[in-house]
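Sanity check. The docking grid for adenosine-5'-diphosphate depends on where the pocket ends up, so I'm generating a full predicted complex first rather than guessing from homology. Inputs follow.
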Amino acid sequence: MRTLYVRIIMTTMFIMVASTMVAFIVTNVYYNNFLKQENDEKITETAYHIADMHEYNTGQSIRAYLDAIAKMGYNLHMVGEDGSAQTFGEPFSSEKLDPSVVPSVIAGETFHGIAEYPWKPFITGFFDNTLANTIGVPIEVDGETKALFVRPYVNQHFGEMRMFLAILLILTLFFSFLIVLISTRYIVKPILHLTDATKKIAAGNYHLELNVNRKDEIGRLARDFRKMSRSLEQTEEKRQEFVSSVSHEIQSPLTSIQGFSQALREEEIPAEEQQRYLSIIEKESRRLSVLSNQLLTLSFLDSETDADQFVSLDLEKQIKEVISATEWQWREKNLSISYEETGGDVRVHADPKLLYQVWMNVLTNAIKYTPNDGEIRIEVADKVREVEVRIADTGVGITDEDLTQLFERFYRGDKARTRSDHSTGLGLSITKKIIELHDGVIMVTSEVGVGSTFTITLPKT
Ligand code: ADP
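Predicted complex below; grid placement will be based on this.
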């Protein structure tokens, strides 16, 4: 299984191996371009010293002399004009040499084998113990000029150092690997916790124990995750509350319909009483129908996010339509309605059907909660960027406590009174949703016994 843990470890190992290789190549390039030349110069100087010292030190045989030099950490190779060759110190791994080299050194030239040594990507020429990787200088031996090839015996010079570097490299790799192995657990563990948490949320358990004290991205993720689970929990609570309110709202008219229809069937009831029972049944079923319509509108509004149905709408024309449509209601209560047109062309970008419901809800509420002979005033204020519609009544007013919950679903002010009015408590929550869908705002001010004013602000087209 390709777990995150395995993935991180494999990636780190790959990075470690790759970077070691790159570092090796870069070092090699550096040696070839800069150090090789310097090394060559240094060894050339030493080679000349070796040759010169023999010329001054005539008492000692060349063999003994070169053996002594070899013991000091050099590999030497001497070739005479006749081709006779002798090696001192460690044997070379290869004695291949261009045939022109020996004659040219005997003729007095210096052979810069180290500087000219070919570049190899993975093995630093520095360590190659070959005859081609030497410095060749002429040397006088018993009146004859020979070619002397010199290179330091790197193993002797750097043997311990090489071991030291190798151990250092191996231990660095080993400990890095060990630390990655341990630290990856530390990185992966909180992610595993979060995965467990998602499973719990999916199973409906929102009470999570997450470490949110970390300051890094994982800590932030855990905090956001906890926030998300809380909001999911609230949504779930609201949903349950909503379902229980809906069933409650449906249950009470149904009980009343069942009770009255049963009474009509089973009891001897005077004709007048029968009529009363029937009208109650009719009212309750109408209430159910309104409720189901409003619930449909709410669910539509909950899912609706695009502005497909929006058109440029003549606002004042629509308000006048709503006033005419409710005429029989306000005339029945002998209410006076005042509405003054602005005289301009006030247009908003809106869904006509939805906005119609807004005016309908607010105006029918004003009619419903205003006693007979009262007054309703509708004003439209055409502003630069927005339009403000105020619907004020001289009705019963709303208490401060009710004002805070007015737009919540199923909220009804005076429960006993409004229930008999067949209100559902959904009207204003629908109104608010529609206004928000139009990027508008709805506000209420009210005074008990004096009246209420609903102010709706919408952006203009
Ligand atoms: P409904 O009118 O169906 O009960 P609404 O959501 O439209 O539901 O209204 C919620 C509550 O707000 C009402 O029950 C009522 O108490 C109060 N209310 C709304 N409009 C007015 C108003 N113009 N005057 C007084 N109270 C109001």
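Relevant for the grid: The mean pLDDT is 88.
Also worth noting: The pocket of adenosine-5'-diphosphate is lined by residues 361, 365-366, 369, 393, 395-398, 406, 411-414, 418, 423-428, 452 (CB under 6 Å).
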